[in-house]
Structure prediction request, 144 residues.
Amino acid sequence: MAQLFELPIRHLMHSWRKCLGYLPMLNNAICFKQIFIVTGYTDLRSGIDRLAALITSKTGDNPFVPDTLYLFCGRKTDRIKGLTWERDGFLLLYKRLEKGRFQWPRNESEVQSLTEQQFRWLMEGLTITPKHTVQEITPPQYPA
Prediction:
């Protein structure tokens, strides 16, 4: 019979310590300083090493930056992968929606930085660039 072991909180990984109370992690980006989306199609059969190499080849950046999340999507837009460096190794995240789809930008060979609002829109199934936004206006001056 398989036994389940409960690990004490001190054994949780670095990024997860900051996210305690904010899980599930991919619905809230509070524990990441930067979030990047790798647009286009990514083979989600890829593992950590191939995704890290993809980050380097597309951006020229070092993927070993703590508290930075890179997001990838395959042809099926109901699932994504995330990769983050945690000072002692990579953490690979996988999310599959039971209902709905992510609105993933498909322009190839591009890595975009996301704001917290854009990340929230993406996780809610919205596009990261809204077509119509409410514009602020200055209130009209009425004579007294």
